[in-house]
Write a structure and sequence with these properties.
alpha/beta; Udp-n-acetylmuramoylalanyl-d-glutamate--2,6- Diaminopimelate Ligase, Chain: A, domain 1; Beta-Lactamase; Alpha-Beta Plaits; 4 domains; five-stranded mixed beta sheet; 17 helices; elongated; PucR_C-HTH_sf; PucR_C-HTH_dom; PucR family transcriptional regulator ligand-binding domain-containing protein
Length: about 550
């Protein structure tokens, strides 16, 4: 403002506030009324002759305080008509707030200053807009050229002359470009930002723009002021870069999701027996996995447990199950494939309905429980980063198959085992090499015959929702799970043995049976296990 010709002609003198001369002026406003409350929005250059402030020190101080409270950028006073010099109360109030006070020693037409200031503000805004559009165009070109996050951030560093850091929603480092400042200095500044935020303080010397994907926060892009303070253009550039990063990530994610669906369709066809050996090899090779002579294929299936992961057949996502917060096997497939590939074994995986179908080429490694445990650890480690665990997804691992056709048959069996595992006690993984009773009950879960069987066996305990009936049903389940060993059942239920005996007698009386009869026990055990599939009573067995 002081460099404008119309201002220089007024012989300006900075009375106080040299340290605040860098303040941004948003607008210019003339104020001559005695009560200036609620006239401003902040960032204004206030022009005055002092007429409204008057000659009383008390009123001058109150008048100045009102302007300061409204966030003015500077105060310019024309001397002569009201004041011969800027009054001490005005100077003192502005000095305390570090507000620059400028005195004009020659008369000046305020309208000329406001026109000049407004023109300069508009020109600066237009220049900022033009620079913002230019950097946005450069980011867009990078995306269209197939470049990714590293190139976008390198372009941003070149534009703002300061380091930038991309972090995920948890504050973890994803990527950074330090520029000429060096990695240590850039990462130290980034760590300082997090330390300040952990203390609940506003971090200084940085600007952060949110990176959003699919209506949720993916992370932040931070510009760190090491070389120069961050100005308005730097902030615009960081915001445009954050948008470009989001578009780039979405493009990569979309590509991965298309590939995941193709892999899922192939594995589903394989499991349904619709692919012959030669075609299977060719399709697997086209999808990026050709184990060749690398040994057997290990079938693995993951499936969602909770009702929120229920199927939506016929949806836009080819029937894939969705979670309330948007997590699907399709979205997780890239991360899970990376995790499982860290074993060094080729992996092919893809979603189908509520399931994630997986084949791992074992090569010379062979199969053992240690490998299964390692795969489960990698799988659940990837889910854990999204707040999911074994209680959200069941993982079933089958036995190795020597051919693609055999692998498809094994996938079908393991898929069945994974569905059955959703009604079993929570475990990191389930051994699906040999079908069990749970698989049979899972297959029969929607049949009227199974419903009738459960009602016939357990009817008196099911018709009453009272806590007593539920306690008896829970006791029966624990007793049967313990193989009729009463001491073990009592420990599982945290009951005194005498209390358990009383409950078992009550169960016999309610059902009209004897728990000493092997056929009765077998029927009740099947019914109780079937009940889990009918009503999802997994909570009892956790």
């Amino acid at each position: 403002m002081l460099d404008l010709p119309v201002v220089r002609r007024a012989l300006p003198e900075v009375v106080i506030g040299d340290a605040g001369l860098g303040r941004e002026i948003r607008w210019a406003h003339v104020i001559e009324m005695p009560d200036p409350d609620d006239l401003l929005k902040g960032g204004e250059l206030v022009l005055t002759t002092g007429l409204g402030a008057g000659d009383e020190a008390r009123h001058q101080a109150a008048w100045s305080a009102s302007l300061i409270d409204q966030g003015i950028a500077a105060l310019a006073v024309e001397l002569g008509s009201s004041w011969r010099e800027v009054p001490a109360p005005v100077v003192a109030a502005c000095a305390r707030a570090n507000i620059p006070v400028v005195a004009f020693h020659r008369p000046v037409r305020f309208i000329e200053i406001t026109e000049a200031v407004h023109g300069a503000v508009i020109n600066a805004q237009f220049a900022l807009l033009a620079r913002g559009e230019e950097i946005h165009r450069r980011f867009t070109e990078l995306i269209l050229q197939g470049r990714g996050v590293p190139e976008i951030l390198a372009e941003l560093v070149g534009a703002i002359g300061n380091p930038v850091v991309l972090e995920d929603a948890g504050g973890g480092l994803v990527y950074y470009v330090s520029g000429p400042h060096g990695d240590d200095l850039a990462l130290s500044a980034w760590a300082d930002v997090h330390r300040a935020e952990d203390r609940g303080e506003a971090a200084e010397g940085m600007f952060a723009a949110e990176v959003r994907l699919l209506d949720s926060s993916w992370g932040r892009l931070l510009g760190l002021a090491l070389e120069n303070p961050l100005d308005d253009f730097d902030r615009v550039a960081v915001e445009r870069a954050a948008l470009a990063v989001a578009i780039g990530l979405l493009a990569q994610q979309h590509d991965e999701q298309l590939r995941a669906r193709s892999r899922g369709a192939f594995l589903s066809d394989l499991a349904d027996g619709r692919v012959e050996e030669g075609d299977a090899r060719r399709r697997a090779d086209a999808l990026g996995m050709n184990p060749g002579s690398r040994g057997a294929l290990l079938p693995i299936v993951a499936t969602w447990r909770a009702p929120s992961f229920a199927r939506r057949r016929g949806s836009a996502d080819a029937g894939e199950a969705r979670v309330a917060d948007g997590i699907t096997w399709t979205r997780l497939s890239g991360e899970l494939r990376t995790a499982l590939s860290s074993t060094g074994l080729p992996v092919l995986l893809g979603p189908r309905d509520v399931d994630l179908l997986i084949l791992v080429a074992l090569g010379a490694r062979g199969y053992d429980a240690a490998l299964a445990e390692h795969i489960a650890q990698l799988f659940h480690g990837a889910l854990d980063r999204h707040g999911l665990g074994p209680d959200d997804a069941a993982l079933a691992i089958g036995g190795p198959a020597d051919t693609w056709v055999a692998a498809g048959q094994a996938l079908r069996r393991v898929r069945r085992g994974a569905g059955a595992a959703t009604a079993l006690p929570i475990a990191r993984w389930h051994d699906a090499r040999r079908p069990g009773v749970a698989d049979l009950l899972h297959d029969l879960r929607d049949t009227p015959e199974l419903d009738a069987f459960v009602e016939e066996q357990l009817g008196p305990l099911l018709g009453d929702a009272a806590p007593r009936s539920r306690a008896l049903l829970e006791t029966l389940e624990a007793y049967l799970a313990a193989g009729g060993r009463k001491a073990e059942a009592a420990r599982a239920l945290h009951l005194e043995r005498q209390s358990l005996y009383l409950r078992l007698r009550r169960i016999e009386e309610t059902l009209g049976v004897s728990l000493d009869d092997e056929d009765v026990v077998l029927g009740l055990h099947l019914a109780v296990r079937a009940l889990r599939f009918r009503r999802g009573l997994r909570a009892m067995t956790r």
